[in-house]
Amino acid sequence: MTHHLINAYGLPDDMDLLRVAPATEEDLKVAHSEEYLDLLCHLMPAIYENAAATQKAAQQHGLGEVRDRRTGCSTNDNPVIDDIWDYCLCYAGGSLAAARALASGRYRVAINWSGGMHHACEGKASGFCYVTDAVVAIKVLLGRFGRVLYVDIDAHHGDGVESAFLEQSRVMTVSFHQYDGRGFFPGTGGALYRALNVPLEAGTGDDEYHRLFGPIMERVMQVFRPDAVVLQCGTDSLAGDRITGLQLSVRGHAKCVHLIRSYDVPLLLLGGGGYTINHVASCWCYETAVAIGKEIPDDIPQYGFQRYYKSQGYKLHYYHDAHSSNSNDDARTKRVTKVKQRVMAHLDHLAALMAAPSTQPDEEPACPAGREDPAERLHRRCGNLDLTEFLIDLGRKQLKRRNIDLELNC
């Protein structure tokens, strides 16, 4: 529905459509264990239903009907469906191609609305996500860019992406998500200050949301200074979603895209959650227009899916800013202010850490020959260290490596 609506508005005329190959198993190994991928690629409904051993193995990896030991409830978020493996390769392939397009330097914005499956972990499916295309894409971006920022505006916590980069100093994850203390993938612990989670109450509308999002993202950009950004645009944070409780309008949701786009760093836009299908298509279509800097009419064109939009009056913007204001609720305003203060304090700590030489990224991105003068690279790696001390320390490390090599040869 999204793809056809984008076509109906004529937006592809202002874009390049990349026809891409599916991802391969090798591509996915940067984010998932070989054991999990081997299970996933051979899994079919008939085998799952008739082979007890396969069923048990699948359930251990979050596939099929799984019982939660804490609650005793069964969930089936990740059913074993026909062509499950091909489906995973296709949406991951889209994110891979988008990331490679940005890494090539030919594009500043790339989009894969079928991606953004942010809950899948190294060896486990979760929350409708079988493989984590976002992690695969970020790994590609790290081959070209020094620092990558991941921002998640889905109603649920981007836990799978966060957990994948807990030990990676070149990636920061920021998740704005509904948190009521009873679920919705709340963020917990992990990388000190580089995994930032902003809790939102059910009922949060445009006003409240952007009292947090704008200032926080401005500070994140100042402190972390990313060379590329991945923005997961899950639409279950929209008003009227079937299973969540946030109240963003389409314009309010798209304002996040506009803001991140305004920083003019290479930007990868991904999809994600969203459980009222017409709202999803409306939002991602409008955000495509925002990404390319084009305003489109509110009246939805005739394009074959009209019956889905009857409930929203055949309008793109079915829920307006005025409907989503919480500004008159003093108690809520105080809680939002408190959240903002805590997040800003967190970012101040990150700023201090980023300024310390010992916290500079310990992995340098691949850089084509001739792009940077060796002396400049040396000074950049030194940070605030005295050059003499740096060279002495470097010499010691080289001597240590040489002695180890001699011992091995003996």
UniProtKB/TrEMBL annotation:
GO terms for molecular function: histone deacetylase activity; histone deacetylase activity, hydrolytic mechanism; metal ion binding. The active site is at H119 (proton acceptor). A divalent metal cation binds at D154, H156, D236. It is found in: Nucleus. The keyword Hydrolase applies. One of its GO terms (cellular component) is histone deacetylase complex. It is an enzyme of class 3 (hydrolase). Signal peptide: none annotated. Residues 3-289 form the Histone deacetylase domain. GO terms for biological process: epigenetic regulation of gene expression. Its main location: nucleus. This is Histone deacetylase.
